[in-house]
TrEMBL record:
<dbReference type="InterPro" id="IPR038063">
    <property type="entry name" value="Transpep_catalytic_dom"/>
</dbReference>
<dbReference type="GO" id="GO:0071555">
    <property type="term" value="P:cell wall organization"/>
</dbReference>
<comment type="pathway">
    <text>Cell wall biogenesis; peptidoglycan biosynthesis.</text>
</comment>
<feature type="active site" description="Proton donor/acceptor">
    <location>
        <position position="188"/>
    </location>
</feature>
<keyword id="KW-0808">Transferase</keyword>
<feature type="active site" description="Nucleophile">
    <location>
        <position position="203"/>
    </location>
</feature>
<dbReference type="GO" id="GO:0071972">
    <property type="term" value="F:peptidoglycan L,D-transpeptidase activity"/>
</dbReference>
<dbReference type="GO" id="GO:0016740">
    <property type="term" value="F:transferase activity"/>
</dbReference>
<keyword id="KW-0573">Peptidoglycan synthesis</keyword>
<protein>
    <recommendedName>
        <fullName>L,D-TPase catalytic domain-containing protein</fullName>
    </recommendedName>
</protein>
<keyword id="KW-0961">Cell wall biogenesis/degradation</keyword>
<dbReference type="GO" id="GO:0018104">
    <property type="term" value="P:peptidoglycan-protein cross-linking"/>
</dbReference>
<comment type="similarity">
    <text>Belongs to the YkuD family.</text>
</comment>
<dbReference type="Pfam" id="PF03734">
    <property type="entry name" value="YkuD"/>
</dbReference>
<dbReference type="InterPro" id="IPR005490">
    <property type="entry name" value="LD_TPept_cat_dom"/>
</dbReference>
<feature type="domain" description="L,D-TPase catalytic">
    <location>
        <begin position="104"/>
        <end position="236"/>
    </location>
</feature>
<keyword id="KW-0133">Cell shape</keyword>
Amino acid sequence: MRNRVRLLQLLIIASLMFPVLALSASYGKKICKTPGFHCLRVKGNQSWRSLFPDDHDRGIVMRVNRMNTQIYPGITLAVPDNLAEADIMDFSPFPLNVPSPGEKIVIVDPASHAWGAYDAEGVLVRWGPASAGADYCRDIDRECRTHEGSFRVYSLGSSDCYSTKFPLPDGGAPMPYCMYFQNGQALHGEPNGLPGYNASHGCVRMYVNDAEWLRYDFIEGPNSGNHYRGTRVIVKAY
């Protein structure tokens, strides 16, 4: 009974934190039966740290499942069979090499809940979990998917970046290291963590440390050195 009450509390918190149904299927449950993985169903008071005490193992499982929020009883995680020897690049949903694009690009794939950064030679430099726009946002009563297509970053923010619109009516939601690319939609860190599904109002949420790396070590805003063409961001179809 106590576990059921705790589960209900967590679901209520999740429904308030994310504008889509908290019962959305997790990414881990979708992939855990594919070759190279096995399914782990969370029980009782298990946590990320109790299940995966090793920092390396825990970090990989979190990224594979596209989530770093608190786990709760009943959720299914995908765990790599070769976890101890694995490297995060082994689980990239993007090719490690593509034909040279001639410029740096960031790919966002809402279907695999991930982003990838390629250098001008077409080498995947880094990838990470992402949570793009949701199919439906209850607070605005409509679809709020991230726009698909090819865009360029036009504005960059710092760790103090925040939304001027959400939560309604006055905004204030933190968006650390925001990188705007289309009509108010941005790549940015998510201090509250990623849930393993698309849950935003249209922005692309990611780990805060990933957003910081993109903001300061990879993405460029418009400047004279790039002919005032910021780094290209490509959002794939859902």
